[in-house]
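Sample pair:
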Amino acid sequence: MVGHFDSDGDETVSGSEFLSAFFAIRRDEQRKVVEENRREERRQMEHLEKLKEEHRLKAEEDDLTCEYAVHDLRKAIQN
């Protein structure tokens, strides 16, 4: 552990070295969460667009025009 936290190589871990390493780990973990949330948001938006297109094509096939609210599409995704 000393090797991991000891940034100045004096074979001791000062409070500042520990905090620096601790906050670096925290930033990395937060960045991972933010990136995962962005990927999930993109995935959901792509799925939503796909559903919109499928509904648009179906409406054209049925010679009907129908508009779906965002709420309706999100509920469809959840189901």
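The chain has one domain: 2-78.
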